[in-house]
Amino acid sequence: MRVVSRAECLINKLCGRGSLSKKELAYLLSRRISAGDERLLFRRADSLRGSHAGDGIIVRGIVEFSNICRNRCVYCGLNSGNVRLRRYCMTTEDILVCARTIYKSGIRSIVLQSGESASIRAEWLAEVIKRIKKLYPAAITISAGERSRSDYALWKKAGADRYLLKIETTCADLYRRLHPGMKLKTRLLCLRALKELGYQTGSGCITGLPGQTAESIAEDLLFFRRFGMGMISIGPFIPHPRTPLSACAPADTVSVLRAIALARLLNPCAHIPVTTALRRSSAREAYKALECGANVVMFSFTPAVFRRLYDLYPGRSKARFDAGRELDGLRAYAARTDRKLDFSRGDFNPLAQKSPVFKTGKFH
Ligand code: SAH
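That is the input. Now the predicted structure with S-adenosyl-L-homocysteine docked in place:
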């Protein structure tokens, strides 16, 4: 008789019911599960990705238009205390050139990301969105951090379709320690406002943060499900030399992959990207994520002069992250694995995925 491990029971339960308790999820994230059970978890996530999100690997193009940031997030190289970093904000014309390159590559999903700063004027960004929409009809995702409801409304009206605001961690205590002067509550309110305004809303977390537990990551995953996130971006912590966490150990890749697999099993239809932080070390790891639940890859089209300065964590701006070359690599991978690249808008259909948030209006 074959003995069924606790992990296998939990994986079966998760696949059957679509959810697990925080403790059960934490067990699947812990070091206690065997390599065989981990493979099973990845296989199940991969198969659910295929049946619900499809075989396409959605390709998005990102423009990191400004690295100016007022925040002091202790893990991030853009933190305002990093005074040696030269700050930039691309001009409207520069951004339009990038949007054109993305569009000409066939990609129909454009992401505009920046640090958080009042110097990024809402009216200016609304104008940029309008001009891109008019010239290059594609889905636009904004990722510019916490803003007022009226700014979010203005950008929506200008044509933005999606917004990405990572919660980073849902553990209030850890959040406070990592984000001096910021409040978890504010971020949650921003996410709620974005959803109410009709954005396809995305969030995500960092795994392997100093002081973070498996329970805490499990709580993040349950939050994404309760909220009904359209996009879930999970990346590993990478210490940056010019931050207070410079001496901390980096996250291990396996824990990120497991979190991605669990996010998929909890959110069958969500779009789950292979984060750049995960792709940084090797293409193999990146592709592994596509085999345990992820279905999106984002390529940076930020001009090299600026990309060097969009220094979130070391290795991010490496020259080998050339969108054209990376696309070729991904194309070859897709051909090998019987998957195809999907250059469409890659919309999220909330109705395809039942989430408690739609029934109760409660989000946390
Ligand atoms: N300012 C925007 C977008 C910013 S940065 C916002 O707050 O939404 C994009 C993401 O990079 C962050 O959300 C964070 O999750 C990630 N990041 C920053 N520093 C990192 C580090 N040292 N290791 C891993 N991920 C990091």
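The pocket of S-adenosyl-L-homocysteine is lined by residues 75-76, 113, 115-116, 143, 145, 165-166, 168, 206, 235, 237-238, 240, 277, 312-313 (CB under 6 Å).
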